[in-house]
Write a structure and sequence with these properties.
The protein is built from 4 helices and no strands. The protein is mainly alpha-helical. The model has no long low-confidence stretch (mean pLDDT 95).
Length: 120
C-alpha cells in the first residue's frame, strides 16, 4: 500500500499541473479542444487511483488501476500533440512526460504485482 499512497500523491500533483496547463492553454494560447481533452484524461488518472483505495476485490483494484493506466496513455497522446503543434515548449513537454512516465511505470508495477498475487 505504500506504493499506492505514493502513486495517489503523484497522480494528485500531476492533476494539479494539468489543471494549471488547462488554464494556460485556454487563457494564453486560446486552445480549447485539446485543453479540454487533456483536462479530462489527466485528472481522471488520479480519480481512478483514488477509487482503487475502496476496491472490493483484488480484481476490482486492478481494474481501477488499469483504467488509470488507459487515461495516462490518452494523456500522453495529448501531451505529444501539444508539443508537436508547438503549443507547449520542450521544457514543459519534458517535465510533463517525466512525471507521467513515473506514474505509468508505477501503475504497471502495481498491476503486475496484483496479477502475480492472484496466481499464487
Amino acid at each position: 500500500m505504500i506504493k499506492n499512497n505514493l502513486l495517489a500523491e503523484l497522480s494528485k500533483n500531476f492533476a494539479l499541473r494539468i489543471i494549471k496547463l488547462h488554464k494556460f492553454l485556454r487563457e494564453e494560447r486560446q486552445e480549447y479542444v485539446i485543453s479540454k481533452q487533456i483536462y479530462r484524461s489527466g485528472t481522471s488518472i488520479g480519480a481512478n487511483i483514488a477509487e482503487s483505495k475502496y476496491a472490493q476485490t483484488k480484481a476490482d483494484f486492478a481494474m481501477k488501476l488499469n483504467i488509470a493506466l488507459k487515461e495516462a496513455g490518452e494523456t500522453d497522446y495529448w501531451i505529444d500533440l501539444l508539443f508537436l503543434s508547438e503549443t507547449i515548449g520542450q521544457k514543459e513537454y519534458d517535465s510533463l512526460k517525466n512525471d507521467l512516465n513515473i506514474i505509468i511505470g508505477t501503475l504497471i508495477k502495481i498491476i503486475k504485482k496484483v496479477r502475480e498475487s492472484k496466481d499464487e
